[in-house]
Design goal:
Elements: H1 5-59, H2 67-80, E1 88-94, E2 100-102, H3 111-122, E3 127-132, E4 137-150, E5 154-165, H4 166-217, H5 232-281, H6 287-316, E6 324-327, H7 328-338, H8 340-345, E7 349-353, E8 359-362, H9 364-381, E9 385-393, E10 396-403, H10 410-415, H11 431-441, E11 445-450, E12 456-463
Parallel strand pairs: 7-9
Antiparallel strand pairs: 1-2, 1-5, 3-4, 4-5, 6-8, 9-10, 10-12, 11-12
């Protein structure tokens, strides 16, 4: 079962949107995580700077500081500013006996982490990340060293530890991720709606074209479906309408052809039938004359049928032509020889004025037939002379065939190449139609006009090689 274009577009569009949203979400999640880790360290560093300023202001240059006062100052300073994530604060000390301990009752640091902290501090690092195997969290840590003499002149080093855990970061990351997913879903929904609208706007004119094509298949050439999309679909619509006009003209020409053909075929058949019945009934005293008439009409009928078949092949079968390189001078010369009997009978002199060899790509036999038809027409109407000349213009050559007859009437000029049109002294009415078809199949053109002296001009143009 065929799927319509709208479904195909949507089914291809949705996976693309989903894929783009998934990639965007993954990239955004990674970027947010990296950003937050960096931001956490920056926030902890900024908070440590605030605490350092408060301690400097509150304690100043006191040599002996009460431990409780020291802790109170630190805790108050920690409450002054909360930058970004919630941070925690602990104070660790290292006594003269190198004993490291936390000053907080609910310390998150066990002895192993305190040792790790001390090692990092001794290496001069003030911001770093360590992992606690106990709770499997990472700790983002900033160290603020405080060097004072406290507790009865006993030298004690203090470090204020600001930290937060990956749990806090993960909570914020998950919150942002949920918001991001919600935004992506909304964007995806909007994109699908836009995709559906786009698909329908794309298929609507195509459906119109399909309906138009269906009407054409039923030979409805008159209804017009205008499409104004300003793109290739509009061009397709214009091409379709052009094709419709061509089909309409062809259909009408075929109807005229059948009407004319039936009329032309009926005339000799009627004559043959009438004479045959007369012979049967014995109404003719001179049977020889009746038989001659039957033979003449039969030959005329045969010629007409042959020309109809020949014209049909010319217009429908490309393989009917055997193209090769031919010399135009020699080709026209052969055509002149073939009409010599007709020209001699009418005492018409045919003058061929072509000096140089001119090569064209042609089916020699058929093109000779085309020139024979032209020359035969000229001989029927010429007084005494027919001139054939060639004029070359860049890659084109123009063969000009002129006679000294009375020229064409206005009706002749308009209808000369129409099927079954017979001018004065015409034969079957197909000769010039066949000639034009042959020349067109060779990529050439044929035009007719009257010359200044009153005779007829045939101008045939070909591309040379």
């Amino acid at each position: 079962m065929r799927r319509n274009i709208t479904k195909k577009v949507i089914l291809q569009f949705i996976p693309l949107i989903i894929g783009a949203l998934l990639v965007s979400s993954i990239v955004a999640n990674i970027a947010i995580k990296v950003f937050l880790e960096k931001k956490v360290m920056e926030d902890l560093t900024n908070e440590a700077a605030i605490i350092r300023n408060v301690i400097t202001t509150e304690i100043g240059n006191e040599k002996n500081i009460d431990r409780e006062k020291f802790k109170d100052v630190i805790m108050r300073s920690h409450k002054l500013d909360k930058v970004g994530l919630d941070s925690r604060l602990e104070v660790i000390t290292k006594t003269a006996n190198n004993v490291v301990m936390s000053q907080s009752k609910d310390s998150q640091f066990d002895s192993q982490m305190l040792t790790e902290l001390t090692n990092r501090i001794q290496k001069g690092k003030e911001s770093f990340i360590i992992k606690n195997d106990k709770d499997d969290f990472k700790y983002y840590i900033t160290v603020l060293p405080i060097n004072k003499l406290v507790n009865n002149n006993r030298k004690v080093r203090y470090w204020v530890i600001l930290y937060t855990t990956t749990k806090e970061v993960s909570n914020l990351t998950n919150t942002i991720l949920r918001i991001n997913i919600l935004i992506m879903i909304i964007i995806g929904f909007i994109s699908i709606v836009i995709g559906v609208f786009f698909a329908r706007s794309l298929t609507k004119p195509i459906i119109k074209l399909k309906n138009r094509a269906n009407r054409i298949s039923k030979r409805d050439f008159d209804s017009i479906e205008m499409i104004n999309t300003g793109d290739e679909i509009e061009e397709l619509s214009e091409s379709l309408e052009h094709m419709v006009n061509e089909l309409k003209n062809y259909d009408e020409s075929q109807k005229r052809f059948l009407q004319n053909a039936s009329h032309e075929l009926k005339t000799p058949l009627t004559s043959i039938s009438g004479y045959a019945e007369g012979l049967k009934d014995g109404v003719f005293d001179n049977t020889e004359e009746a038989l001659d008439t039957i033979i003449d009409e039969s030959l005329r009928l045969k010629k007409l049928v042959e020309q109809i078949i020949f014209l049909s092949k010319l217009e429908t079968t490309h393989e009917f032509f055997e193209m090769k390189v031919v010399d135009l001078k020699e080709l026209i010369g052969n055509a002149v020889k073939k009409v010599y009997g007709l020209s001699a009978k009418k005492s018409v002199n045919v003058k061929l004025d072509i000096e140089d060899r001119i090569n064209i790509y042609a089916d020699e036999d058929k093109l000779i037939q085309g020139f024979i038809n032209i020359l035969s027409n000229c001989i029927r109407h010429a007084e005494s002379n027919i001139d054939i000349a060639v004029k070359q213009e860049q890659e084109l050559c123009h063969i000009i065939i002129s006679d000294d007859g009375n020229g064409f009437s206005k009706e002749d000029l308009e209808n000369l190449f129409d099927r079954f049109y017979k001018g004065a002294n015409g034969s079957t009415g197909l000769g010039m139609t066949i000639t034009k078809s042959i020349i067109n199949k060779h990529g050439g053109q044929i035009r007719v006009s009257n010359n200044e002296n009153g005779g007829a001009n045939f101008i045939v143009t070909f591309k040379t090689i």
